[in-house]
Amino acid sequence: MCGRFVEFSNLEQLKGHFPIDKILTEVTPNYNVAPTQEILAIVHQEGLNVLEKLHWGLVPHWAEDISTGYKMINARMETVSSKPGFRDAFRKRRCLIPADGFYEWKGPKGDKQPFFITLPDEKPFAFAGLWETWRDKDREDELYRSCSIITRDASECLKDIHDRMPAVLSPNKIVNY
Q: 5-173 maps to which CATH number?
């Protein structure tokens, strides 16, 4: 599972690592990104890779209200294509979520130790993600754009800390998302 992560790379670093054609937001560091906060995401729209901010916690277009997003911060890779809340976004709206590291905790409840995980070269990477646009039926003109991080079984080196981890994409492996 991914419940907290870090975004501290500046815009120039992100442009050097990711396919960004258009920028719609400021890039400011956040060393404790938490669910429901706005996070950086690179979405593909109208033939361009657009860097913008989305709320972390996917709200499907058919949801009654945005509180659904609190339960949908992560999407399991094994079921993302079949679960109703993620299925449409998986087919049509994938995104990259730039990060510099993420946290996992280990230990007994009430006494967990945080571990900061990053790439060996400490360069930025991306989480595989999904995004969605939701409209409040009472305020059709207001859009709420949100996303979810795809998770997978933990890699061999992280299994002792946690059984799940985000699906991490290194910049040199990103071709078409």
A: 3.90.1680.10
